[in-house]
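Dear Dr. V.,

Thank you for agreeing to look over these. As mentioned in my earlier message, I'm a first-year student in the group and I'm still getting used to reading structure tokens, so any feedback on how I've presented them would be very welcome. I ran two proteins. I've put each sequence directly above its structure. The first is here:
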Amino acid sequence: MPKNKGKGGKNRRRGKNENEGEKRELVFKEDGQEYAQVVKMLGNGRLEAVCFDGQRRLCHIRGKMRKKVWIAQGDIILIGLRDYQDDKGDVILKYTADEARNLKLYGELPDHAKINETDNFGEGDHDDDIQFDFTNDASGKAGSASESSSEEESDSDDD
């Protein structure tokens, strides 16, 4: 049996990012592309994004980016639009926070785009505005629907 001369498998390279610190050239959108902000991560390489043209799209993370470029909620991305499906797109590039700020300075992104905040499009999506009433009744303990219904049943038995 031959002797192993390698240093192991892919787990050896897992923690390394070869070109993490490098400055890259700023990529602007072209025809058939649009800037967007991630609203929700859906799993299975898909996400929901709000494009800056005002439309919400279901986007697919391309294979070259999967498990190499981590995309989170609130990130600014560049998506490629599909000719045959207007409500879907493909993630081409993820912008860093510095690149997104530069795009905003150049006027590519609108002024209402929030770069570092994660919950920016969720005003109407969540049920956070539900109010609960925690007031106590006259006896000092919190009343519940089951207690009041049992009292009504006992009153009707007296008749």
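The second protein is here, in the same arrangement:
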Amino acid sequence: MELIQQTPDIAAYLAADEAIDHDHPQVSGVAAELASRADDAYTYARTAFAYVRDTIPHSADSGDPRVTWRASDVLATRTGICYAKSIALTALLRAHAIPAGLCYQRLTDDDGTNPVVHGLVALRLPGRDRWARVDPRGNRPGVDARFSLDTERLAWAVREELGEIDYPALHATPPAAVLHALRSAQGRTELWRMLPTQL
């Protein structure tokens, strides 16, 4: 998948903002702990991916009603949907000076109904000339996402015949539609009704 940077300046994919708040002590603390177990950027990125994927349950799997949207809150409460978990992983990567951004898929049910936008992360490690997508959503039966820079191992591959889409845009900040849903919903049940169906 060839991604298109929405912002040409790579520095935008290292910056902190209100959601990707890697300057927050909660994020920098987790990043420092993960860095203590990694001797290079690749190992750190793989460790951060596994941390978000495996230790922060997706709220749909766990039944947690809370809605998180800041990286620091996701890491503190250990809950979030795919958008929130992607924001958290992006923040952890940027905290270690690894350019990272947000990218998305449009997925549907098996009959092509009930479209929803699914959040992913793309990162660019030193010495590599391309972005690599990873999916920190969290595994469950039938979902086996892995950290892989050369062959994508996402939770889901798009089915174009059902109208599913791999969006090529690489966002430095969460899109307005994603942030609006996360910030406005009073709980996960309400959030499900507000999730964007396309970008």
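From my reading of the second output: The CA atoms of residues 41 and 120 lie 20 Å apart. The beta strands are 4-5, 100-107, 116-123, 132-134, 165-166, 169-170. Does that match how you would interpret it?

Kind regards,
E.
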